[in-house]
């Protein structure tokens, strides 16, 4: 921290900003990083130091930090019509155009699109859609929501309950009725001698047992990320979605793909649910939809679900739910341009072009003595640190190994994310192979230095 300068940006931050999801011990010891601007895949702090952001902000700044076309679209919309809502049947023309674009891009027969300001709000909205639909259809008991261990679906009370992370115990969550099925992480949870397909079949059997135990007519829906992102980039085991899909169909349980991270190209496909053949009824999108330049979440409803929800909403006079800034025209203009950039300026193509290099360097890092698994797809990846490659035993928690690696990398000008005992990477889609090499060169050096320190 720049403590020599009184009233420095760092000191002002420490006095004024309450950072969530921030290790406060590290913050107190190391100080915050105050950023002023970005250029390509780099961001710059108040002292002029530059950092490669190997996480695209929070997975979302996929076009880099100063894409002029998106900035221009934002400014043009600001001059034309900078703000409006989507209540009472009124909406900006730009938001209608975006909805048509999302319907066109969606991988299924889509009905309509509903807007929020974030991924959490979008998932939360779907929970209310499910509850209202079932209640109006004479099944008010159908309220239980299934997600999975290690899932991340957001931070509102409902979506934190859906998130399968231990830290939610701090809030006395999950609420009753939020159920967590198995995490499809074969490397961690596969049994001795069990093949990946057998693992997937076992998880599907467990899911069916859970549904039967709870009562199929009490389940409102199941949510799943194509690849669990904040869970540590958990790529689903082979055959996993193929195995669980028929069970959800059998019990008529709506299936929701949380594409907040995977949507719009992260896996190398436009949709993660296509990559893993999820065949969802609803898609939840956010993050890359505006390339990180504006807050937005979107619920894309499959036609059948949408028709059913419209019918009950008409019976109730309305779907009584909405966010003041949902469908804001600035966000819609930014999203329209961002999606055009991803599709037409070759960002999605670039993910596929450079993913080979990304995965090769990730696997090479995975050969490190203390790396248990290197996993990923497209431009998302993680390396899990272990005490012992064979037993997969984690290192003692007090070593805070992934935090140490991330903190040291930060000093070298690389932003990467510690998640549990994994280091997680998700660089912007504009990244070059040379920049991928830079990331991994720094990371390899950092990992060696940290293990030399730890002894
Ligand atoms: N769903 C997934 C898969 C996410 O990764 C996130 C955020 O990281 C969310 C939902 C919540 O989105 P937000 O932070 O915009 O509320």
What does this protein structure show overall?
By secondary structure, this protein is of the alpha/beta class. The protein has helices spanning 9-16, 24-30, 56-59, 68-80, 93-105, 119-136, 157-162, 186-189, 196-214, 240-250, 272-275, 303-315, 329-344, 347-365, 401-411, 433-454, and strands at 35-39, 42-45, 50-53, 110-116, 144-148, 178-181, 219-224, 255-258, 282-285, 297-302, 371-377, 380-385, 414-415, 417-419, 422-425. It has a 7-stranded mixed β-sheet, with helices on both faces. A 4-stranded mixed β-sheet has the order 1-2-3-13. The protein has a 4-stranded antiparallel β-sheet with strand order 11-12-15-14, with helices on one face. It is globular and about 65 Å long. The mean pLDDT is 96. It binds pyridoxal-5'-phosphate (PLP). Residues 58, 118-120, 123, 152-154, 225, 229-230, 258, 260-261, 286 line the site of pyridoxal-5'-phosphate (PLP). This is Aminotransferase. It holds the Pfam family Aminotran_3. InterPro entries: Aminotrans_3, Aminotrans_3_PPA_site, PyrdxlP-dep_Trfase, PyrdxlP-dep_Trfase_major, PyrdxlP-dep_Trfase_small. Its cofactor is pyridoxal 5'-phosphate.
Structural class: alpha/beta
Strand percentage lies at: 15-25%
Side by side, the strands of the main sheet go: 4-10-9-8-7-5-6
Bound molecules: pyridoxal-5'-phosphate
E-strand count: 15
- Rounded to an integer in angstroms, the radius of gyration calculated over CA atoms is 22 Å
- Provide mean pLDDT, rounded: 96
Helical element count? 16
Helix content: 40-55%
Poorly predicted regions are: none
Q: Main β-sheet, in a few words? A: 7 strands, mixed
Shape: globular
């Amino acid at each position: 921290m720049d403590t020599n300068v009184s009233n420095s940006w760092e000191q002002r931050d420490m006095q004024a900003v309450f950072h969530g999801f921030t290790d406060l011990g590290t913050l107190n010891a190391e100080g915050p990083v105050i950023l002023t601007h970005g250029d390509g895949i780099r961001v710059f702090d108040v002292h002029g130091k530059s950092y490669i952001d190997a996480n695209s902000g929070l997975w979302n700044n996929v076009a880099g930090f100063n894409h002029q076309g998106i900035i221009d679209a934002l400014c043009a919309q600001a001059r034309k019509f900078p703000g409006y809502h989507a209540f009472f049947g009124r909406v900006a023309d730009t938001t209608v155009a975006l909805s048509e674009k999302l319907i066109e891009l969606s991988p299924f027969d889509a009905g309509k699109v509903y807007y929020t300001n974030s991924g959490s709000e979008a998932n939360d909205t779907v929970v209310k859609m499910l509850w209202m639909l079932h209640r109006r259809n004479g099944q008010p008991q159908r309220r239980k929501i299934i997600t999975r261990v290690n899932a991340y679906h957001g931070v509102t009370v409902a979506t934190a309950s859906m998130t399968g992370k231990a830290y939610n115990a701090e809030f006395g969550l999950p609420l009753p009725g939020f159920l967590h099925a198995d995490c499809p992480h074969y490397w961690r949870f596969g049994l001795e001698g069990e093949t990946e397909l057998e693992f997937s079949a076992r998880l599907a059997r467990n899911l069916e047992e859970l549904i039967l135990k709870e009562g199929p007519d009490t389940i409102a829906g199941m949510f799943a990320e194509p690849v669990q992102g904040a869970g540590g980039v958990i790529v689903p085991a082979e055959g996993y979605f193929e195995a669980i899909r028929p069970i959800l169909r059998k019990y008529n349980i709506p299936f929701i793909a949380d594409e907040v991270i995977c949507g719009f190209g992260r896996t190398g496909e436009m949709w993660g649910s296509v990559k893993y053949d999820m065949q969802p009824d609803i898609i939840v999108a956010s993050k890359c939809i505006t390339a990180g330049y504006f807050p937005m979440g979107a619920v894309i409803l499959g036609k059948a679900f949408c028709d059913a929800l419209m019918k009950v909403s008409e019976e109730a006079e309305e779907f009584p739910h909405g966010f003041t800034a949902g469908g804001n025209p600035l966000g819609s203009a930014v999203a329209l341009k961002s999606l055009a950039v991803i599709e037409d300026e070759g960002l999605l193509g670039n993910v596929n072009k450079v993913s080979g290099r990304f995965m090769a360097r990730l696997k090479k890092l995975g050969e490190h003595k203390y790396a248990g698994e290197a996993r990923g797809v497209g431009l998302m990846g993680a390396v899990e640190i272990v005490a012992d490659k064979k037993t997969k035993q984690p290192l003692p928690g007090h070593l805070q190994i992934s935090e140490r690696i991330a903190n040291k990398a930060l000093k070298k000008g690389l932003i990467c994310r510690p998640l549990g005992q994994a280091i997680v990477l998700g660089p912007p889609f504009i990244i070059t192979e040379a920049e991928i090499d830079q990331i991994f060169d720094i990371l390899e050096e950092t990992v060696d230095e940290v293990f030399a320190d730890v002894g």
